[in-house]
Amino acid sequence: MRHLMSPLDFSVDEIESMMDLAVKIKNDPEKYAHVCDGKKIATLFYEPSTRTRLSFETAMLNLGGKVIGFSSAASSSATKGESVADTIRVVGTFADIAAIRHPKEGAPLVASRVSPIPVINAGDGGHQHPTQTLTDLFTIRSLKGSIRDLTIGLCGDLKFGRTVHSLITALIRYPNIRFVLISPEELRLPSYIREDVLDRNHIEYREVTRLEEAIPDLDVLYMTRVQKERFFNEEDYVRMKDFYILDSEKMQLAKDDMYVLHPLPRVNEIAVEIDDDPRAAYFRQVRYGMFIREALIMTLLEVKGC
Ligand code: NCD
Q1: Distance (Å, whole) CA 2 – CA 243
Q2: How sure is the predictor about 50, in pLDDT bands with cuts at 50, 70 and 90?
Q3: What residue's CA is closest to ligand 1, atom 7?
């Protein structure tokens, strides 16, 4: 039985096959509408979420399966003091697969070690968010044709943004990928990613503060919001929250085929005037996320016949 805790749990080839399956599902959804008949996914969300939870649930419904779960810790037995390990043992009796989001780093991993069913990490604190990464990789491959020879800009809260940590970890396995890390001094990438992932693997990157300076070179610009809930004090958050605002003036400096991605939710970091720019890909990205989650569910449940 396999789980998904980190984007590295699947090889590049396996991710490639999952993306190929996602393309097939996207092109012919009817063909896959019953492959998970009789199966259930449990979405155990101890932290707020809109798209990730609904994306998992829609993915399972699209495959003919059903959905159970909770959308906040307050509405689960966590308030009574139950551990995630006990919860997954119980939920494993009801469902065939589970997606867990938790504010504590490593909580889904703890659950996976005792789980009778496959567990997907749907985001653990500031650590990892592997299904957002599958979404991001699938979006990049769909828009750019392949994942190679790209300069990728990551902008915003690189310290607390788990989507950034997961995406970098995954992207270094592809040929000739360079990074431009755009953040205020205080929100730079943590050293466990910069040193242990980038430096150790001799990946080309530079750290800059000004978005204007970086944007002309980029093939993909990955914007992120400042992660309010992970700040220790409100003052620091307020000082940092509007540090970057991508607007049409800045987009004029970008290449014609530079795509803008964002895991969403957006706060102020992308002006709404950009939304109609053909290079703004963040709402398309949500759709790619649903198809790749369908492919992931099928893969983990070992659903055959497609
Ligand atoms: C991200 C997350 O939860 O880390 N959102 C998402 O899953 N689409 C990004 C964020 O909350 O900023």
Answers
A1: 40
A2: confident
A3: 52
Catalytic residue among 51, 228, 266, 279: 51
Answer yes or no: 102 catalytic.
no
Single-letter amino acid, residue 47? E
Backbone angles phi and psi of 38, in degrees to 5: 85, -5
Catalytic residue among 43, 52, 133, 163: 52
The verdict on whether 129 is a catalytic residue reads yes
Residue 214, CA atoms < 13 Å, CB-side half-sphere: 27
pTM over the 0.85 mark: yes
Tell me which residue has its CA closest to atom 11 in ligand 1. 265
